[in-house]
Amino acid sequence: MRVSDQELTRLTLLKAIRRAEPVARTQLVEMTGLAAGTVSELTGRMVRKGLLLEEKAPVVTTGRARVELRLNPDAAYVVGALLVPRGTLEIVIANLRGEVIFSRSPEVLFSGLDTLAARLADIIGLAIDESPLTKSEITRIAIGLPAVVDNAHGTLLWLQTFPRGEISIADVVEARLGVPTSIDNNASIVARAEHWFGDGGPHDDFCLVMLGYGLGFAEYRNGLLWTTAGGLNPELGHTKIVHEAGRPCPCGATGCLATYCTIYAIVAEICACRNVAPPPFLDVQDAYAAAVADACNGEPVPSAAFACAGSMLGLAMANYVNVSDPKRMIIMCMREGLIELVAPAFHRAFEANVLPVLAGRAQVEFRLASEERFAKGSAALALEDLYRVK
Predict the structure, then answer these.
(1) What's the CATH number for 5-73?
(2) CB of 160 within 8 A of CB of 250?
(3) Class of domain 199-369
(4) What is the reported pTM?
């Protein structure tokens, strides 16, 4: 996300208020490092626009009561929607504080990318109609997609299993529903959930790996989501981990990391070892559940496939640490079984390949995904856009 200095100042203030509310202006000066005049001017403007509420703090000593600031939860409502590979759209409607007031998880059926945007618009529109709010009360919509996207222009560039082509998802949804709309990659959405709503925050400097049917990656630096110069999400899954005789990838290359450590890659490797055809990409759930059960029972083929996945991911993340030296690393696993079966081999490969002077500097955490939390990440994207322009 590219932001101007003015937008960055505004976001910094609003994030500080959200994390610490109720909070006095003098505290905001200390928390953000902004000048007192800047804090006073911007918060005053936000109060007049209805984004912030002023309230008097209880008086504990003699003197004037201190004025504290809170976000006004009813100043705006946003829709966050996350398209997950199993074919559902996780939808939440949240207020300005990110508190969820309505949620739905409908199925998404579409015949091709040319119909996806219209289908998303119809489903989101129906969810709004079923909610306690009207469309006129929705300020922004944000959609997360398991795809390569151009966040700056609201376009989908490539969704695996479909031909490549630029689809203006945000423009279509916005035109059909009459609400400003943004899109982003799912991993970027998940990272926003961690940044805005993570436990023990604030989390301003970290990277996140989203390990599921595909492999997503996102990184926050100094409180802002990092994107490429062209506004695209980074594609860790298509970095090359094997140079010669690598596994073929749907992107057209060979040796991509995603062909070794994702759920589909694990299932495909087990099937290859057993001389059976792998299931279609969208029908892999039952095969994965059987692979987990077999590995937990000590069967060698699935056990080796999970270990290979962990080793390849550990090697890739060691390379990343050697380049970027992140403060914190989160491996977000989208299905049960991944942590137990992948993490041991990951840690062995990671520790063996991190540069010794960097060893132990990054906090590494495996975590099981929570789809409700991720849908709140979509809401965070909508809130972020709202905070920048309102």
Answers:
(1) 1.10.10.10
(2) yes
(3) alpha beta
(4) 0.85
Alpha helices in the chain (DSSP H): 5-20, 25-32, 36-49, 113-130, 169-177, 186-197, 258-261, 263-273, 285-296, 300-324, 338-353, 371-389
Distance CA 69, CA 67 (A): 7
- Sorted by where each begins, the domain ranges of the chain are 5-73, 75-195+373-389, 199-369
Q: Out of 21-35, 84-98, 199-213, give the one with best mean pLDDT.
A: 21-35
Q: Which fold has domain 75-195+373-389?
A: Nucleotidyltransferase; domain 5 (3.30.420)
Retrieve residue 135's tokens: 């469309």
* Cβ atoms within 10 Å of 141's Cβ, excluding its own: 30
Q: What is the CB-side half-sphere exposure of residue 345 using CA atoms within 13 A?
A: 17
C-beta of residue 288 within 8 angstroms of C-beta of residue 267: yes
Matching CATH topology for 75-195+373-389 and 199-369? yes
Helix (H, G, I), strand (E, B) or coil at 144: strand
DSSP 75: G
Q: What is the pLDDT of residues 312-343, one digit of tens each?
A: 999 999 999 999 999 999 999 999 999 999 99
CA 75/CA 15 separation, integer angstroms? 16
Rounded distance between C-alpha atoms, residue 206 and residue 329, angstroms:
6
What SS3 state is found at 210? strand
